[in-house]
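Let's practice the habit of predicting before peeking. Look at the sequence and jot down your guess about where helices and strands might fall. Then scroll down.
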Amino acid sequence: MKIIPLILLLLLTACNRTDTLSKLPSNAVILAFGDSLTYGTGASPQHDYPSVLAKLTMLQVVNAGRPGEISGDGAKRLPALLDQHRPDLLILIHGGNDMLRRIPPEQTADNLKEMISLARNRKIGVVMLGVPKPNILWMSSADFYQAIAEAMTVPIDVETLPEVLGDNRLKSDLIHPNDQGYEKIATQIHSLLVDAGAL
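Done guessing? Here is the structure:
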């Protein structure tokens, strides 16, 4: 007797899932864009998250990380990369250096919105990860990441980077992951892409 309500619940749950990204073709190009977290500072060769994600997805993942970059400079650098690589998907992890330099969050948010729009105007899908605010006791992604994702309908993961950067076992220094940390980031991005319908 209780089986029917359970089946209905599962069907409703499945129907409520809305894929926000188009399924990537087998020859898709993914552009991983950001700062040192994308570049792979602290990782041994081929253990940065884009390299690990390429193995998980069996797709080409271009590492376009630039250590130390602030979001304003990223917004200026992105258009040429989008035109050069013509990716099917942009993975955006940016803004950490803004917080370290105490750049106003509104300015960072505007730059992130600009990056998303640059991709969208080229019919490129976007996913984003939230970067944690500097905090000794408890890490969580800055609030503007979730707000941007909701306003622009961008699939987002706001939990993985705080979890990795809050665990000394997954870090190579105070602000960068080690090989295990980058592997976790890649694995979670892979799950995000599956949930969003891209894989």
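How did you do? The longest strand covers residues 29-34.
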